[in-house]
Amino acid sequence: MSYDDIGREVLNKHNAAYNPKMKFKLPLGGVYAWRREGEKHLFTPEVIALLQKSSKLDDYDAYKEYASLINNQSERGAITLRSLLEFKQRVSIPIDEVEPVENILKRFVTGAMSFGSISYEAHTTLAMAMNFVGGKSNSGEGGEDERRYTTAEGEISARSATKQIASGRFGVTIEYLNQAVELQIKIAQGAKPGEGGHLPGHKVDDWIAKTRHSTKGVGLISPPPHHDIYSIEDLAQLIYDLKNANPEARINVKLVSETGVGTVAAGVAKAQAEAILVSGFDGGTGAAPLSSIYHAGLPWEMGLSETHQTLVKNKLRKRIVLQTDGQIRTGRDLAIATLLGAEEWGIATAALIVEGCVMQRKCHNNTCSVGIATQRPELRKMFSGKVEHLVNFFTFLANDMREHMAMLGFKTVDEMIGQAQVLRQKKEIHHWKHSRINLDSMLESFPKFQDQISEIHQSNDNLDRVIWNKIKDEVAIGKTVNHVTEVLNTDRAVGTYLSHKLYHKFGKNGPSSPIVLGFKGSIGQSFGAFAIKGLTLNLCGEANDYVGKGLSGAEIVIKPYSYTRDDNEITIGNVAFYGAISGKSYIAGPAGERFAVRNSGVEIVVEGVGAHGCEYMTGGKVVILGRTGRNFAAGMTGGIAYVYDKYDKLERRLNPADVNLESLSIEDINYVKSQVEKHLELTGSPKAEEFLSDFDQEIVLFKKVMPTDYKRVLEEEKMKLETQNN
Description:
- The chain contains 22 helices and 21 strands.
- It is an alpha/beta fold and 726 residues long.
- The strands form four sheets. A ten-stranded mixed β-sheet has the order 12-13-14-15-16-17-18-19-21-20, with helices on both faces.
- 32% of the residues lie in helices and 16% in strands.
- The longest helix has 22 residues, at 387-408.
């Protein structure tokens, strides 16, 4: 827009505000929620009613009426970027020559909506419908109830095919990872790029808390993505970890449509991801702040075309399956997305409307009257969604897509992908701003481009596979295993592939006979990542970043080569025990920054931590026999930290927003002593020995870091129990 255009818009708003005919108040606006006289929306009450009618009655004519209202925006102005586009005239083909509906249905995915943000009924119905048609539902970032991993004979599986993995997200265990067809790394969220998720405490009931490994009634804040991914190299490490945790899963990386997303996508492809989702700004959660929804991100049309073009120019496109989502509603939307480069499409809001959503925009209040965005039992009973309704809707979309393919002369989706030369910008839309819009760069095409099946990247050259081949016979007969090996800093994700094999043999509780593995040397990243219960990993030496990431019940013991080195020389790197779920660990020596971020249940002893320790922690207990860095316990809503504060600096380094400092109770003192004794036994730490030798004097220097909400919930539960007993 020019300065004159900006001035014109300012004057228009000024004149509206000071219009002498305006007797009472300004218009309601209706930017967020639909208002009859407000901003124009695509999902109006009429459109919602038609969509629900068509899917419930299996009425394709009603669907076509719905699609016509969505597609023909001329009367309401251009609401979406794709409404400025039209198809060029081409030689059509008979629809019988177009690939069948079944092939197209396999390309659908649902948006990532967590169990917790929506109800169990809404979540499982989506999963069952997608499993029925051959597509993929997405678990979101809230974990998944393990009951959904088994299916009775003759029933449809309720398991989400795509499991979302994000920065320290909830419930990411070795079992969760191995119950997936696809693992999606969430770098950002369409509705609010750069922000983490937030589930209010009133939506965290017993069931949600169990699934997310947290505490009932305590709000849950997800760390923003930069906590463990600072670079493409960090992302590549996470992809490597996941490929070892579940070698059969496709790795998908979720990006957001923003300027430069193509460059990021090229790096993601080089990091050996197999699929990329470019998410539009107008999708996302109904619980996102208004400032996030309307002031961040771009339409998916822009990000998708940039990503496709950049991957083609860098000869990377054949390695990637490209997805997009963000208020995709009709077959026309699917056709435009495909021509701009997408081969799979995500549907979320429209699918929820088919389940019964009426767009109240109250998702965060736990008051959804149709039983979708609520955990309240009495409201969940109001849920009326059916698997067959969703199957009808996705079948309508597939048939609508086939009609567009026939009209444009394409027999298969594959030959349609990226053929943007079939699109052109409309000229007849009459609005004073439209003359300034030029979509030529978005419509740059590569007509000779032929998409290929994405390559599967296997991680076959790591130490875990060597160890497994040596111990698998002993494991098979239930023997106790003891194995020691030398390691190098190129040995990454040690214990992860082993945990994958042990999970498939023994289940989530691991082997009944101990498997004790010893290592000597400087080990690489992700030592013990997602390591399973029954596995003990002992390291004499030092470890790189991500030790114990997603720990799933194993025990990790690390001690240095010798105890003659400087106390400030760290034993393990940054981001240790990130998103860890359960298990124990004893670290003789200090750790780097971001220690135990989003720890959900692991008990740890460590001899010092860097900045941002115990951030976003929701469970577990951490005993720190040394100094802490700045911003300790930021966003910590659960678990307890016991910090040795010899120089009385903890209060200055603490982030006090969610926690208080307390003195230790008798119970706390006994716990700390027993943990330090165990630490001495396993590591021989001189610091532990010194502490225990003068225990009565040293214990008074400890401070207890207690989350305020967590303490409140514990006290409420205690009072409730006392009342019941009386």
